[in-house]
């Protein structure tokens, strides 16, 4: 008998599911292989992935300045070659020199300090301070391989996916009644999977709740650049707490940022950071110990995290091209979000809240009872049943809302806004045609 089997493996492994790369995506990959081996076997010729926030896999181009600096840091011997100035911008060359001077051995293949390279943390702290208007300490920065926390509560769909304090109090009371002592609250803002941007007053309510209940506020802010409506602005939770008069001794806040989202989309580089504030030295020591177990995060990701928080400035050679690339990506994302939002709201039985930010929409779909019963017969959830049908008929990959948690009796799916702009019309037309057919098939 094999030493490891489904009978002996940890049962938590068997129960673990990751919706954005779950059953629907596995099926999509199989269909993609089928299209390669048997062209014309399906009523579509390509898979349109709308399941995961992975911009460059769908054609988004990296920011030139960032990649120039990375290339020079990875191959420093070309810094002094005369032809380099014809290939790379002068500010990218200078930034690479500055960064290499801070790396042990001037080598991106070397381990760094477990918190991350000090000079890069200095740059990130300066960027945070410039963004928020409050001091930031580089010693509070821990550079990480990306940022992936989770969410423990329901949002209020009727109020544009706001985080109602009444819901937090309900979850808090429910946990306490079960003998559970909550230690932290995770808030994703702008939101995933819902795409909302929290109002500043809502954020203040959340900060007050965490202060009152003694909770650590874990602020996932990786979509901070992705805000598409003028009436909403991104405010970091640390900034909100400080503006309310709460200092480090009053509330513990851990803020997360990543190079995977925003306009940069450098998912494969696995760069990010957390800013840890409001903890005593004994807890900081434990956090550092855990960081040390993994030695350090990858150096390319560390460099990118510093560049994201300290991009070219007005007057730098790369500033105009950098600004044009950044604005082009964000304005395109805004158009794509609006187009998809409008398309969803035109579908029978589908409602979609405003696309305020992040990279996702989370439409609610009211499925016919006949479809719900067909899903039960197929031993799956109704939203998964719909998404499976959509994939098989159109090649579009959505993620069922049940993979994220949704209010009992409601059904949703998550759709990214990331397919390139020239692909969005195909998403809309294929979805619209399928939805009409689906609703007719299962109409009572």
What CATH calls the topology of the largest domain is Aspartate Aminotransferase, domain 2
| Fourth-level CATH superfamily of the largest domain | Type I PLP-dependent aspartate aminotransferase-like (Major domain)
Gyration radius, to the nearest Å? 23 Å
| Helix content range | 40-55%
What top-tier CATH class of the largest domain fits best? Answer: Alpha Beta
Mean pLDDT: 87
In short:
By secondary structure, this protein is of the alpha/beta class.
Core attributes:
single chain, 444 residues, 5-stranded mixed β-sheet, 15 helices, Aspartate Aminotransferase, domain 1, 42% helix, 3-stranded antiparallel β-sheet, globular, 12 strands, Aspartate Aminotransferase, domain 2, alpha/beta
Structure description:
- This protein has two domains: 11-59 and 327-441, Aspartate Aminotransferase, domain 1 (Alpha-Beta Complex), CATH 3.90.1150; 118-309, Type I PLP-dependent aspartate aminotransferase-like (Major domain) (Aspartate Aminotransferase, domain 2, 3-Layer(aba) Sandwich), CATH 3.40.640.10.
- The protein is built from 15 helices and twelve strands.
- The chain has helices at 11-15, 23-37, 64-74, 84-87, 90-100, 118-132, 165-177, 200-213, 237-243, 281-293, 299-309, 319-345, 369-377, 382-394, 424-441; strands at 48-49, 141-144, 184-188, 216-220, 253-258, 272-277, 350-351, 360-361, 364-365, 396-397, 399-400, 413-416.
- The strands form four sheets. It has a five-stranded mixed beta sheet, sandwiched between helices. Strands 8-12-11 form a three-stranded antiparallel beta sheet, with helices on one face. It has a two-stranded parallel sheet with strand order 1-10.
- Strand 3 (184-188), helix 8 (200-213) and strand 4 form a beta-alpha-beta unit.
- The radius of gyration is 23 Å and the shape is globular.
- The protein starts with 10 loop residues before the first helix and ends with a helix.
């Amino acid at each position: 008998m094999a030493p490891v089997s489904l009978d002996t493996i940890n049962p938590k492994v068997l129960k673990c599911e990751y919706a954005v790369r779950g059953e629907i995506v596995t099926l999509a990959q199989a269909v993609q292989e089928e299209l390669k081996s048997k062209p014309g076997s399906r009523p579509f010729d390509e898979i349109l992935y709308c399941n995961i926030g992975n911009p460059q896999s769908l054609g988004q181009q990296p920011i030139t300045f960032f990649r120039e600096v990375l290339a020079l840091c990875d191959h420093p011997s070309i810094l002094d070659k005369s032809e380099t100035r014809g290939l790379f911008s002068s500010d990218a060359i200078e930034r690479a020199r500055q960064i290499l001077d801070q790396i042990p051995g001037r080598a991106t293949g070397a381990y760094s300090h477990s918190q991350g390279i000090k000079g890069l943390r200095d740059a990130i702290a300066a960027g945070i301070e410039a963004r928020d208007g409050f001091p930031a300490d580089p010693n509070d920065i821990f550079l990480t391989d990306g940022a992936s926390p989770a969410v423990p509560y329901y949002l209020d769909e009727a109020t544009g996916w706001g985080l109602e304090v009444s819901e937090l109090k309900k979850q808090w009371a429910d946990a306490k009644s079960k003998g559970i002592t909550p230690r932290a609250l995770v808030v994703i803002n702008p939101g995933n999977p819902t795409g909302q941007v929290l109002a500043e007053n809502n954020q203040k309510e959340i900060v007050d709740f965490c202060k009152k209940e003694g909770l650590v506020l874990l602020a996932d802010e990786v979509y901070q650049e992705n805000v598409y409506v003028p009436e909403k602005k991104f405010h970091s939770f640390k900034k909100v707490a400080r503006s309310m008069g709460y200092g480090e001794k009053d509330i513990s806040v851990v803020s997360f940022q990543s190079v995977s989202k925003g306009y940069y989309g450098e998912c494969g580089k696995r760069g990010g950071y957390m800013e840890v504030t409001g903890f005593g030295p004994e807890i900081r020591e434990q956090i550092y110990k855990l960081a040390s177990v993994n030695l350090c995060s990858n150096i390319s990701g560390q460099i990118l995290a510093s560049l994201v928080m300290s991009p070219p400035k007005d007057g730098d050679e790369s500033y105009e091209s950098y600004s044009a690339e950044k604005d082009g990506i964000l304005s395109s994302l805004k158009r794509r979000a609006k187009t998809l939002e409008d398309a969803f709201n035109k579908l029978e039985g589908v409602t979609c809240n405003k696309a305020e930010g992040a990279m996702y929409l989370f439409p609610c779909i009211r499925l016919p009872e006949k479809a719900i019963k067909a899903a039960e017969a197929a031993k799956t959830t109704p939203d998964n049943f719909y998404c499976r049908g959509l994939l098989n008929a159109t090649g579009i990959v959505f993620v069922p809302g049940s993979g994220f948690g949704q209010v009992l009796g409601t059904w949703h799916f998550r759709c990214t806004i990331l397919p390139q702009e020239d692909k969005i019309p195909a998403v809309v037309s294929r979805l619209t045609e399928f939805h009409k057919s689906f609703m007719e098939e299962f109409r009572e």
